[in-house]
Amino acid sequence: MNKLPGKIISVETEGSIALIEVAVGELRLSATLMGTAEDFLAWEMNQEVDLVFNEMEVAIAKSLSGQISLRNRLPGKVVGLEIGKVLARVVFIVDHTYLLSAVITRRSALKLELRLGDEIEGLVKSNEMNLIRSGVL
To answer: Which of 2, 43, 55, 118 gives a 20 to 30 Å CA spacing to 99?
Structure first.
């Protein structure tokens, strides 16, 4: 499980959906949550939270250019790489501070020609991001 500490900077709600923007250093990341209006009252501006997301939900991009609908782009450097028969685990550091990991297929890792030291971006859809109060996990 990946975890990034941050602070809520925006909460938008409509019906049973909330879009919550979180500042993690200079990064601006989003989580889309489902629930009730009462559920959303738990999330307040400037509240410290942890964004948590599964390493199987992280896509990897190398030399990404152009526009993309994914708002959660995590630029980093590959610091660990385990390539198995079917899957590969990519460990990367974001903002010289946060170690994150992604599990992708071996084919994708080979096609991207991933190497230690490569500059990459981890990509996570906002509906795959979960919020918890800081210090709970």
So the answer is: 43
pLDDT digits (tens, 9 = 90+) for 17-75: 999 999 999 999 999 999 988 888 889 999 999 999 999 999 999 999 888 898 899 99
Instruction: Give the SS3 label for residue 37.
Output: helix
Half-sphere exposure of 100 (CA within 13 A, CB side): 31
For 89-137, the pLDDT digits (tens) are: 999 999 999 999 999 999 999 999 999 999 999 999 999 999 998 766 5
Please report, for residues 18, 89, 95, the alpha-carbon distance to residue 104 in angstroms, rounded to integers and kept in the order given. Answer: 29, 6, 22
Cα–Cα distance between 23 and 16 in angstroms, integer?
23
